Structure formats: C-alpha cells, structure tokens
User: What shape does this take?
Amino acid sequence: MNASALLNAGRSLAVERAERLSEADLADLAEATDAAIIEGGGFGWVEPQGRAALERHFRGVLLVPERELFVARLDGHPVGSALLVRPPRHNEAQAFAATLTHAYIAPYARGFGLARLLVEKLEERAAALGHRVINLDVRETQATAIALFESLGYVHWGTHPYYARVKGQTVAGRFYAKTLEPGRGRSTGALIDSAN
Ligand SMILES: CC(C)(COP(=O)(O)OP(=O)(O)OC[C@H]1O[C@@H](n2cnc3c(N)ncnc32)[C@H](O)[C@@H]1OP(=O)(O)O)[C@@H](O)C(=O)NCCC(=O)NCCS
Assistant: This one.
C-alpha cells in the first residue's frame, strides 16, 4: 500500500455537484471555508466571514444559474468546495469555455486527494455540458494549488503582475487554460486548429 492509500484507508472521499444543501451541510461548509481562509486563503476571501455570512453566500451561489457548486466530503462531511462558472447566455462567443474558481479544501482535510477529485469531477461536468476549455487563475503564492493544476494538465499562459491585494501586499496571479474533450462532435484539437 502506498503512502496516500495508507492515509486514505478507512476514510470516505466524495465530491458531488450540490443542488441543495442541508442545514448541517451549510454549517460544515461554512466552518471549512473559514478554516481555509484563516490558514491563508488563496481563493478570494482574505478575512474569515463567520458562519452566518458564509451560509448566506452558499445559499446565494445555489440560486445563480451560471454557477455550479461542487462540494468535497470527507467521511460524509463537507470540507471544501469549488465553483464551475459558465458564461452568461449573451456571451455566445465564449460559450465554449467555462471557469473553475474558488477551489479550496479545509486544512484538516488536506492531503487525501480531495482537491484532485474536486477538479476532475468539475472537468467531467464541464465536458458533459459541452465546454471545450476550462480557464482558471490563481495567486502565484499558492504553490500546492499550482502543483495540482499543472499536474492535471493546465497550461500557464500568462501572469498578471497586479492580480490581488492581500494584507497590504500586491500579489501576482497565474492564468491557466486546459482543453477538454466533450466526447461528441469534432475533437477540441481539430476545432481549435480549424480557426487558424
Ligand atoms: C490546493 C488545495 C485545494 C489542495 O487540497 P488537497 O485536498 O490537500 O489536495 P490533494 O490531496 O488532492 O492533492 C493534490 C496535489 O496537491 C499536491 N499536494 C497536496 N498536499 C501537498 C503538500 N502538503 N505539499 C505539497 N504538495 C501537496 C500534490 O501535488 C498532490 O498531488 P498528488 O495527487 O500527485 O499527490 C489546498 O491546499 C487548498 O485549499 N489551498 C488553499 C486554497 C487555494 O490555494 N486554492 C486554489 C485557488 S483556485
């Protein structure tokens, strides 16, 4: 048994697309989110928000048609999440692309492989919806996230020098893209090449 299998022995890992969340799930998710913010954030928030504000935030996310929430569970409890953001209907020119954003796992649930599973499930859903590209951006200080995205095939195409302001410091951000194969129609490679 390798180290990761040993670590995972007896633990249950799951990622689901959430269409509704119970009160208990919302409380767990708020706790996980604040724990990740306190540990260093890296996914938008800088200051812990408190349970009530985060529960309102997640209830709001579930109402937005272009946002899909993916929740990671360890032993059944929400410990992290990510968003798949689809282009609005008026953006026909970019309907082929979607964005992965706001991805994090609570510090107490890291190292089990949940973030990898989260990104893979989100990609599967994006491909099933017909998207050909996933875009994402990340602060250049988020070394673990960068290692994860690069190992999953995301291509770094640019760096924004003034990407974020965090605790009085300007932080650069790395921009990534990955092509997907929706499994129907022309291959994404052929589609992209035909435009050149
Ligand atoms: C990035 C993050 C989501 C990873 O969560 P995780 O569940 O621990 O990640 P996983 O267990 O799925 O590991 C994924 C990869 O991350 C890397 N990794 C995980 N833990 C690591 C550690 N302690 N040190 C270095 N690399 C590590 C490995 O490359 C691992 O790949 P492997 O599957 O080949 O071993 C988590 O660290 C986090 O929430 N960070 C803060 C928020 C953030 O940076 N979000 C990204 C903004 S979009």
